[in-house]
Amino acid sequence: MGMTGRGSLVQRLRLGSGLVLLFYVTLHYVNHMAGHISLAAMEAVLVWQSRVWTSPPGTVLLYGALLTHVVLALAKVLSIRSWRRPLWEWVQIGLGLAIPWLLLSHLTYTRAAEQLLGVRVDYAHELMMLWPDVWVQQSLLLLVVWAHACVGIHFWLRIRDGYARWLPWLVAVAVLVPGLALTGWIVAARREFDALMRLSETLGPEYGPASKRFSEGLLLILRDIERWAQNGALVVIGLALAAMAARWVLQRFSRRVRVTYGDGTVITSAPGTTLLDISRSGGIPHMSVCGGRARCSTCRSLIVDGLENCSPVTEAERNLLKKLNADPDIRLACQARIMGDVQVRPLIQSGSRAAVPRNVDPLGWGVERDAAILFLDIRGFSRISERSLPYDVVFILNSLFGEIGAEIEAAGGYIDKFMGDGLMAIFGLAATPQEASRDAIRAALAAEHAARRSSRVLTHHLSEPIRIGIGIDTGTVVIGRIGRTSDQTSPSRLTAIGDTVNIAARLESATKELGAAMVISARTFAMAGLTEAETYGRTASIKVHNISRPVDVIAIADPAALWQRFGMDAATAAAHAGPGRERRGWRPWAARQAAADAARPRTKNAG
Questions:
Q1: CB within 8 A of 167, min separation 6: which ones?
Q2: Residues 546 and 563 placed together within one structural domain of the fold
Q3: Is 483 left (phi over 0), alpha (psi -120 to 50) or beta?
Q4: What is the percentage of the chain residues whose pLDDT exceeds 70?
Q5: Nearest to 73 by CA among 144, 9, 13, 6
Q6: Among 159, 255, 389, 464, which residue carries the largest CB count within 10 Å?
Q7: Are residues 231 and 329 in the same domain?
Q8: Is residue 118 left, alpha or beta, with left meaning phi > 0 and alpha meaning psi from -120 to 50?
Q9: Domain boundary residue, one of 346, 379, 397
Q10: CATH no. for residue 276?
């Protein structure tokens, strides 16, 4: 995922001002929720809030945050130099531009009426101004403001450790707060409207809903204020968009810089554009989890040539790269503005393209990718080898690993290495983490079945049945070619490095402690889409050396339930066991599963 940074001063100001506004909005929505109780409850909460926000410090903080957030947001919009941006960024920008138009109307009939005209606006007056004439516009404002805030909060927190655990609860809050606020003020408005209608039937129309509304004279004044305010907002937004359009037109005729990517692709752009925007404008896949805010390191790139043509390192970039101990020629694409010709290579691949120098093996450079790692070990093989001749030991290993290797490769796995009586395999070289997790579990089941089958075939060579232990974990690893062959012509084998590898190895050894055939991490189960993990085995937590937090796992003693989940039961396994399977058109079970999966659409790996 990359490491998190503090961001620049401007980013911190924009975030801080946004959080102040979110706090104000949340309290305001709590005020609306009180409408489910009574109008008096809404007034009581409003009095308490007014003491906070109408005090001199509260007023300065609120309106200072509002002005700061608007100015910095407009500056951010003006800095956009590429139309090709993630959808969520355009959604947040669109919602942000819609807020002033909707908000100014609300402010006109509340704060403007009180501050400019000296008219006291309590909840009864406000509700009758909104209901039933403009309740849709008011409700839309409530939802737009909240949606804009939620998008910003999500993409601020999603790179933080532990956010995934809290996400379901945060989603529940994100739905409940606007839902209760929306229904709260509507319930109160309808209750007050009906009460005033009954009062007008008894005492006359002068006591009806109209008694809680502004006079025609005041309404004319407020409508003029509203129109001027909204027209002013349109002028400001229009000027910002015109400035963007003018800059884009000028860029078409200005001096161009050339950015050469590793595969030979060349993108030209106006000087001063960030490397991330250049990649996006040219359709080059470039990771950026935080959206170009220097809060993660996923967009980091190696400047192969032309480092002097990049803008100076920003404060936020320096803080983050310092945590990585990065070399000077490593830059964050979201911060590095290109002033001249450069040759670059993004270091974290999106999976859809390997941007490395032409005619060079991509994995020779090393790429960071989410993958599933499988470790397998033969249980008690020392006892078997002690009672067997050397020839028999080699024959047994070749026979067993021949069967297991075929199943792993048929499931889309790559065998990294054989380690005596064990092996390590990588899943996800050309698949999403979800697909890699499913493929690894499928291969583990097939390997367990292959071990049982080999036990029957090699009965005369074995002193005891073959049993295997398997550990699987899914996470971020660095994949590359390490070392070289003696003749330096054929490429060395791939390997994976990282905490995920260490965890998978630890889970394989934990099969002895837990008395299980397989120990699979909970996150692999989740990635594979397997819910209700306890139906497949026993849940536990395992300590891993140099990993601060225990790893949640599922220890599987009997894989029958998983067999059924993946379409293979005991009867099917028995039908494919024993000699003569080639004559019956047998092929590895994992290969049959892979063929079935191929008929279903597979999502491209986005990281």
A1: none
A2: yes
A3: left
A4: 76
A5: 13
A6: 159
A7: no
A8: left
A9: 346
A10: 3.10.20.30
> Tell me: the pLDDT tens digits for 62-106?
889 988 988 888 777 777 766 666 777 778 888 887 887 777 777
In the block, residue with structure tokens 């396994």: 573
CA 178 to chain centre: 23
Cα 185 to Cα 37, 123, 124, 199, 596: the distances in Å are 10, 10, 11, 21, 53
Paired tokens of 34: 């009180």
Distance separating alpha carbons of residues 536 and 565, to the nearest angstrom = 9
Residues 6 or more apart whose CB falls under 8 angstroms from that of 517 comprise 448, 467, 468, 469, 470, 511, 556, 557, 558, 559
**Residue 2 belongs to some domain of the structure:** no
Please count the CA atoms within 13 angstroms of the CA of 249 that sit on its side-chain side: 6
- Residue 4 included in any domain: no
SS3 99: helix
Half-sphere exposure of 171 (CA within 13 A, CB side): 7
| Phi, psi dihedrals of residue 190, rounded to the nearest 5° | -65, -40
Residue pair 99/144 in contact (Cβ under 8 Å)? The answer is yes
Residue 603 lies in a domain: no
Whether the pLDDT of residue 167 is over 60: the answer is yes
Is residue 145 situated within a structural domain? yes
Residue 319 shares a structural domain with residue 403: no
Residue 128 near residue 196 (C-beta atoms within 8 A)? yes
Name the residue with tokens 């020839």.
Answer: 391
Preceding peptide of 285 cis, ω within 30°: no
pLDDT at 417 > cutoff 80? yes
Q: Look up tokens 């080639």; give the residue.
A: 582
From CA 196, how far away is CA 497, in angstroms rounded?
72
In whole angstroms, give the CA distance from residue 53 to residue 569: 66
Residue 565, classed as helix, strand or coil, is helix
Q: Which two tokens stand for residue 363?
A: 């994995």
Instruction: Check whether residue 441 and residue 506 sit in a common domain.
Output: yes
Q: Is the dihedral of CA 508, 509, 511, 517 positive or negative?
A: positive
Range of the domain at 477: 362-598
CB-CB contact of 548 with 537 (8 Å): no
Token couple for 11: 């980013």
The verdict on 505 and 408 lying in the same domain is yes
Closest by alpha carbon to 379, among 313, 442, 478, 471? 471
State the CATH number of the domain containing residue 522: 3.30.70.1230
- Looking at per-residue pLDDT, the higher value among 200 and 85 belongs to 200
Q: Residue 474's pLDDT band (boundaries 50, 70, 90)?
A: very high
Here the tokens at position 373 are: 């790692």
Q: Are both 64 and 107 inside the same structural domain?
A: yes
Nearest by Cα to 338 from 278, 414, 252, 290? 278
Domains in the chain, number: 3
Q: Is 98 helix (H, G, I), strand (E, B) or coil?
A: helix
Question: Helix (H, G, I), strand (E, B), or coil: what is residue 367?
Answer: strand
Rounded Cα distance between 358 and 480, Å, is: 17
Structure tokens, 553: 């796992």
> b/e per residue, 242-265, with b = 16+ CB within 10 A?
eeeeeeeeebeeeeebebbbbbee
Return mean pLDDT, the chain. Answer: 77
Q: Which residue has the tokens 């894989």?
A: 559
pLDDT at 366: 57
Statement to judge: residues 244 and 287 lie in one domain: no
CA dihedral 335, 285, 152, 331 (to 10 degrees): -20
Whether residue 202 is found in the same domain as residue 55: yes
Q: What is the pTM of this model?
A: 0.50
